Amino acid sequence: MIRCFLLFFIHIAILSAAPLKERFERAKPGDYLVFESNKMVTLLAIRSISSQSVIFEEISTPIQSIKPRPTSWGEWIKKKAPGHSSWSMTEIDLNSGEVIECYSFSYIVTGK
Q1: Residue 2's pLDDT is what?
Q2: What is the 8-class DSSP label of residue 46?
Q3: Which residues pair with 45 in a beta bridge?
């Protein structure tokens, strides 16, 4: 449900909110946003951006899975986001606001 909301929000924001679209246009790979809603924490990280599209990763986790909170979200990602419940990468067309491609990752951790 959160994922659908995020994609809807980004789609509407790109089409109707010039300030947010301008922020996407000024964003650079490595920039990220972390927010909390309905006992979930979601991180959106810009991975690639051009004049035509933006590619971002979306990582979500239940709040109770990350206690205590990471002191560095970047380090949390480098450790394969322990406790995450979803991890996807999405490319969005900046002109139309439409999803070009979306891929869901699944990590299987074995051993060390």
Answers
A1: 43
A2: E
A3: 32, 57
Secondary structure (3-state) at 89: strand
DSSP state of 52: S
Greatest C-alpha distance within the chain? 47
According to DSSP H, which parts of the chain are helical?
A: 2-16, 18-26, 73-78
92 has which bridge partners? 54, 99
Give the length of the chain.
Answer: 112
Asked whether the predicted pLDDT for residue 61 surpasses 70, the reply is yes
For 3-41, what is each residue's pLDDT tens digit? 444 554 555 455 455 565 666 667 788 888 888 888 999
